[in-house]
Design goal:
Oligomer: heterodimer
CATH class of chain B: Mainly Alpha
CATH superfamily of the largest domain in chain A: Response regulator
Radius of gyration of chain B: 19 Å
Number of strands of chain A: 15
Low-confidence stretches of chain B: none
Distance between the termini of chain B: 49 Å
CATH class of the largest domain in chain A: Alpha Beta
Number of strands of chain B: 2
Shape of chain B: globular
Strand content of chain A: 15-25%
Low-confidence stretches of chain A: 12-23
Order of helices and strands of chain A: HEHEHEHEEHEHEHEHEHEHHHEEEEE
Number of helices of chain B: 11
Radius of gyration of chain A: 24 Å
Mean pLDDT of chain A: 89
Largest sheet of chain A: 7 strands, mixed
Helix content of chain B: over 70%
Distance between the termini of chain A: 82 Å
Number of domains of chain A: 2
Chain lengths: 376, 290
């Protein structure tokens, strides 16, 4: 057999093999920019736990024509790291959809999202500014100002607290919380007796406790997160501060819930009905408990919902024969009036922030006691 | 009263800083190895104490022995497995610093994997402040830390001035060539410096775990204080490092009297800058033939 003939036969065989092989579904990649190292890495673990579940459920249900892959990048909860991560996800991985967390990093990547028409969904940052970051920036979590609009009237009118002191991290979230307190408390007949800004890296609060004791407030409002808020609560209590602690949804983390010194603290979160009987909610709760041996937190639920929103929108686009791009995802979200997610049906407001009822909670050592539920 | 309370808090913080800084000052002064992993030894000691005392509910004495043993063992291992081979290949000062920094990253991640990334604390009622006079609160742990510091500093002083090893370590700090001329092994003396310096980190680590709590990254701040104290105190001067670290702790708290806590952390660098400008050789200037 001549070499030429051999070559023709080999080409034919190769061609047959290639054409006979089943079509391989392409990967559909989306991004997750979370703190995976550093003092806030505990949040990254919480977010990833529910996203693993979402990936499994989306694959098992064949929601998308293609294998969903979530590419994680470490932000360390820092804006500059988040920008590097966002640039990589957009430029190298060409993802149409990115999940972000924390107010500072989310604000930092929003301009890239708008410039490159990439959807960014925040499920953990609650700084009030996050509502105004452009049409490609969505929030699947009510923001701190919405939570505080429910919490502050309850604390002042129904519980009779009048004097508030604030400890806030010097970042966009902390500034946002301070502005809301300065604006809302006088209207309610209460006052902000003092406010203390702290760096995000501070770990010693004994001196601050002395200052707070001197202010003698009814309530110490905290605008911090991660390990730091646990350290603040613990050290203030150890150093004789007896005032009630309060915060936005940051207190819903397991570390605060398990802290004896935090017992009785008040906070507000979005109300998610974990007792809802619909199959979607039950599947998430049951599988989460089976995988991790505990109930999911609000944050874990938000990121599951974020991934599911992507899958629902992506599925609809594929049915219509449209590519899954940021532009098409935005257009499809605007056409979709509501989404059936964990806890019930929800919708977005005009700025792209989830509309959800707010609940007033009390730290009770066992995951939080619901005191009141209402619409913001 | 607020000022007095801040002063009390400052003395407590300063005591913990001083205990940690003298270990680093001893190692750096004697060996000139930029042992950035000292912060990692601090974290390891704190977590070992937390595990044995808090989780296994062993007696605090046993937990302290476990923490000291682990700190010394890890300190020696870092010296033998990392610094000695680099020095043998005449690696530069900067190479050792980078390697030491790598140890910090590895330890941080190992601690996070073993103990979790979240905040933990050494639980003890001794860290709860009680009112000693109207409006002035003090934790029993404050007194214990103070007494421990005095005992440790006196013991260290006696060790460095009355024992052969101590005198040799001081000599190594000032004139290593002379030490070799006398037939002493600088390598062996370095081993003593690492063992002693690593053991000295333990009290500060335990008090920090009880007062402020722990996470895998807690060693970085303490390392920064130790570094500033060692340079501003005068390289080779353990007492200089102890005084500067103590002063930083006091100043960090006193600054809160009139200023925001944002300025608290800037105090350490203000100290360093002031000394670099006005007294570049540090608080206690030591003669050195290096």
């Amino acid at each position: 057999m001549s070499n030429c003939f051999k070559g023709v036969v080999a080409s034919l065989v190769l061609g047959l093999v290639v054409t006979a092989a089943p079509a391989q579904a392409e990967d559909i990649s989306i991004g997750g920019i979370f703190p995976l190292s550093g003092p806030n890495a505990i949040y990254g673990e919480i977010f990833q736990s529910s996203l693993r579940l979402a990936e499994n459920h989306i694959r098992a249900d064949g929601m998308l024509d293609g294998n969903l892959r979530i590419l994680y990048e470490d932000s360390q909860a820092l804006p500059q790291q988040a920008v590097l991560a966002m640039n990589k996800l957009v430029s190298v991985n060409s993802v149409p959809f990115v999940m972000s967390a924390f107010t500072g990093p989310s604000k930092a990547i929003a301009p890239i999202a708008n410039r490159t028409k990439t959807v960014v969904v925040n499920g953990g940052g609650v700084g009030p500014d996050l509502a105004k970051l452009g049409e490609y920036f969505w929030n699947v979590i009510p923001l701190a100002n919405t939570e505080m609009r429910s919490l502050l009237p309850y604390m002042v009118r129904e519980r009779g607290y009048k004097k508030f002191a604030l400890i806030y991290v010097d970042d966009p979230l902390g500034e946002g919380v301070r502005e809301v307190l300065e604006e809302q408390l006088p209207k309610l007949g209460a006052s902000l007796v003092n406010d203390y800004s702290i760096p995000a890296t501070a770990q010693q609060f004994g001196g601050l406790a002395a200052k707070i004791r001197n202010d003698d407030p009814d309530v110490v409002f905290l605008a911090s997160y991660g390990d730091q808020q646990v350290q603040i609560i613990k050290q203030l209590r150890q150093n004789g501060v007896t005032a009630l602690f309060a915060s936005y949804s940051a207190f819903s983390t397991p570390s605060v819930q398990a802290l004896p010194e935090a017992e009785g603290a008040l906070y507000a979160t979005q109300a998610i009905d974990f007792e809802a009987k619909d199959a979607f909610t039950r599947r998430f709760i049951d599988d989460f408990k089976a995988a991790y041996g505990k109930m999911p937190t609000v944050y874990a639920t938000n990121y599951y919902n974020a991934a599911m929103i992507f899958a629902m929108l992506g599925k609809e686009l594929q049915v219509q024969g449209k590519p899954i791009t940021g532009e098409n995802l935005l257009e499809q979200r605007r056409k979709t009036k509501s989404f059936a997610l964990v806890g019930g049906s929800v919708s977005f407001d005009e700025q792209g922030t989830l509309i959800a009822p707010i609940q007033i909670m009390e730290v009770d050592g066992s995951g939080g006691n619901v005191l009141k539920i209402g619409n913001p | 009263m607020v000022l007095l309370q801040l002063l009390i808090n400052g003395i407590q913080t300063g005591t913990i800083y001083a205990l940690t800084a003298i270990g680093f000052a001893l190692i750096f002064g004697s060996t000139r190895i930029f042992h950035f992993a000292h912060g990692a030894i601090f974290v390891i000691a704190a977590y070992v104490f937390k595990f044995t005392f808090g989780d296994l509910s062993l007696h605090w004495g046993i937990a302290t022995i476990a923490a000291v043993s682990t700190a010394v063992a890890v300190g020696l291992l870092v010296n033998f497995l990392i610094y000695v081979p680099i020095q043998r290949h005449e690696g530069s000062y900067f190479t050792i610093f980078v390697a030491s920094f790598g140890v910090v990253i590895v330890v941080q991640n190992a601690i996070a994997i073993i103990f979790g990334r979240g905040f933990v604390a050494i639980e003890t009622p001794l860290s709860n402040a009680v009112e000693v006079v109207s409006g002035l609160l003090m934790a029993p742990l404050f007194g214990i830390a103070l007494v421990c510091s005095v005992i440790i500093l006196i013991s260290l002083h006696l060790t460095l001035t009355r024992t052969h090893v101590g005198i040799a370590l001081r000599a190594l700090s000032q004139n290593p060539e002379l030490v070799r001329t006398f037939g002493l092994s600088t390598r062996r003396l370095s081993t003593y410096a690492f063992a002693l310096g690593s053991a000295l980190v333990v009290p500060g680590a335990i008090f920090t775990g009880a007062v402020s709590g722990l996470n895998p990254t807690v060693g970085l701040h303490i390392m920064l204080i130790s570094l500033v104290a060692t340079i501003a105190g005068g390289i080779g001067s353990i007492w200089g490092a102890a005084w500067i670290a103590f002063a930083i702790g006091v100043a960090e708290n006193l600054v809160l009297w009139q200023m925001d806590s944002q300025w608290s952390e800037a105090v350490a660098f203000a100290f360093l800058l002031a000394f670099l400008i006005f007294r570049p050789a540090g608080l206690f200037r030591l003669a050195s033939a290096r």
